[in-house]
């Protein structure tokens, strides 16, 4: 049972909430010994709500600490037990590296070698990109080699029933994926954090958000020949990029740091198959428009609305009709947490679908997309005699 989780309490934006899922999986066995938080009032506020709810016992003795080192001290002093699991949901800028400010995984491996670790996606964000991607890959190798308990990364879409059904169809019919086509279109009214709209801080929406669909494309297409990635972006300063429903003040972000409104990318997989991806910040309201199409000889498999009401659309040899398999109520956040805990405890669903090293490759892909699109923006502006 986890004795400690670094809990993510989240914004009003979406359905993710790790603590709710771990509470559901462990019930009264959950004991959260500490929340590591640099903004203690935020953790206090969240803990207050937890302590007024039916899960209050799990948070009875939770302390708020500034660092994982402080938690180690409490364990050494006998004030807390060794944790069995650690949940990491800090912003990726403060982890996934080898420098003092972002070497969290290295510290966790040293301080808590017996704790299973769950980390939110993406595994890192940072600059310069060569260093950040290189270090994330090294962290993955280090964890693989040195960290005995499981390490799981929250690429939650891999845990959808519809995604697993797609995998099953591919396996059972011995199919080879020819092409993937991914779409992640955001409803932006509730995206109110200014940092998210500043690519200097969160590194932009492909790295921070489309990472989900890029990862899923890799889950089906396999490794990508990274040199073949090519992308174009509709930048914030272009007329088609004007947005009318923003609920934050973008004027505080310098023009060149504003995030692109749409990014379209394509690549070769190592297998020779091809992939494309569109990310756009275009819709009003709440729900995102997300889809992944996977093609193989005779087959079209479409994952629709993965964060809403997920469904699988299948066309097979022998008929031009599309079968629709809705999976209402599927909660992949719960499934990924169930798998994580089952892996620790030898439960019925122990498969971990995203390793750190694999996740670091997805991070590499998203940087390659951003770099290529920025290069094309520079070239296009230069043609008009302007600079980015
Ligand atoms: N799987 C999903 O669908 C999904 C959805 C949303 C967010 N996420 C991921 O969750 C992570 C957190 O996102 P968020 O929007 O909740 O972030 P956030 O900016 O709200 O930060 C989460 C908490 O971490 C704290 N924090 C910041 N630096 C810290 C440090 N050095 N040590 C300890 N605490 C620190 C912040 O004060 C905050 O309370 C990101 O990796 C994000 O991509 C995943």
From the structure above, extract its key features:
single chain; 388 residues; alpha/beta; Rossmann fold; Dihydrodipicolinate Reductase, domain 2; 8-stranded mixed β-sheet; 3-stranded parallel β-sheet; 13 strands; 32% helix; binds nicotinamide-adenine-dinucleotide; OxRdtase_put_C; Gfo/Idh/MocA-like_OxRdtase_N; NAD(P)-bd_dom_sf; nucleotide binding
Q: Your description of this structure?
A:
It comes from Kwoniella heveanensis BCC8398. Residues 27-155 form the Gfo/Idh/MocA-like oxidoreductase N-terminal domain. This is NAD binding dehydrogenase. GO terms for molecular function: nucleotide binding. Helix content is 32%, strand content 19%. The protein contains ten helices and 13 strands. It has two domains: 18-153, Rossmann fold, CATH 3.40.50.720; 158-330 and 356-382, Dihydrodipicolinate Reductase, domain 2, CATH 3.30.360. Bound molecules: nicotinamide-adenine-dinucleotide. Residues 8, 10-11, 14, 16, 36-39, 42, 89-92, 94, 120-121, 154, 156, 208 line the site of nicotinamide-adenine-dinucleotide.
Name of the level-1 CATH class of the largest domain: Alpha Beta
- Provide the gyration radius in Å: 21 Å
Can you write the helix and strand succession as a string? Answer: HEHEHEHEHEHEHHEEEEEEEHH
Q: Which molecules other than protein and nucleic acid are bound? A: nicotinamide-adenine-dinucleotide
Into how many domains do the coordinates divide? Answer: 2
- Which secondary-structure class do the elements indicate? alpha/beta
Inertia-based shape = globular
The biggest beta sheet is recorded as: 8 strands, mixed
Order of neighbouring strands in the sheet with most strands: 7-8-9-6-10-11-12-13
Total of DSSP H or I helical runs spanning 4+ residues? 10
């Amino acid at each position: 049972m986890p004795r400690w989780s670094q809990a993510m309490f989240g914004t009003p934006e979406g359905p993710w909430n790790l603590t709710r899922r771990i509470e559901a999986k462990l019930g009264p066995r959950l004991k959260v010994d500490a929340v590591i938080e640099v903004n203690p009032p935020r953790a206090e506020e969240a803990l207050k709500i937890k302590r007024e709810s039916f899960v209050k016992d799990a948070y009875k003795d939770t302390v708020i600490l500034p660092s994982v080192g402080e938690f180690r001290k409490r364990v050494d002093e006998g004030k807390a037990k060794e944790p069995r699991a650690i949940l990491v949901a800090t912003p990726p800028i403060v982890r996934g590296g080898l420098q003092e400010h972002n070497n969290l995984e290295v510290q966790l491996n040293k301080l808590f070698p017996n704790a299973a670790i769950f980390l939110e996606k993406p595994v890192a964000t940072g600059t310069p990109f060569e260093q950040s991607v290189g270090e994330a890959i090294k962290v993955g190798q280090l964890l693989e080699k040195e960290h005995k308990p499981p390490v799981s990364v929250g690429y939650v879409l891999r845990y959808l029933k519809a995604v697993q059904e797609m995998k099953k169809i591919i396996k059972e019919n011995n199919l080879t994926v020819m092409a993937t086509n991914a779409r992640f279109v955001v409803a932006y009214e509730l995206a109110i954090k200014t940092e998210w709209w500043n690519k200097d801080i969160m590194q932009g929406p492909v790295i921070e958000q489309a990472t989900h669909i890029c990862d899923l494309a890799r889950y089906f297409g396999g490794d990508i020949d990274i040199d073949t990635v090519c992308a174009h972006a509709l930048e914030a300063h272009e007329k088609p990029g004007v947005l009318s429903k923003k609920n934050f003040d973008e004027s505080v972000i310098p023009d060149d740091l504003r995030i692109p409104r749409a990014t379209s990318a394509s690549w070769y997989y190592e297998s020779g198959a091809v992939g494309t991806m569109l990310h756009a910040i275009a819709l009003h309201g709440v729900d995102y428009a997300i889809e992944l199409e996977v093609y193989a000889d005779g087959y079209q498999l479409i994952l629709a609305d993965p964060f809403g009401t997920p469904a699988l659309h299948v066309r097979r040899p022998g008929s031009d009709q599309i079968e629709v398999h809705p999976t209402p109520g599927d909660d992949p956040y719960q499934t990924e947490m169930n798998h994580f805990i089952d892996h620790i405890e030898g439960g019925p669903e122990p498969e971990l679908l995203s390793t750190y090293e694999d996740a670091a490759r997805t991070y590499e892909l998203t940087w390659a997309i951003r770099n290529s699109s920025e290069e094309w923006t520079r070239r296009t502006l230069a043609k008009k005699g302007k600079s980015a």
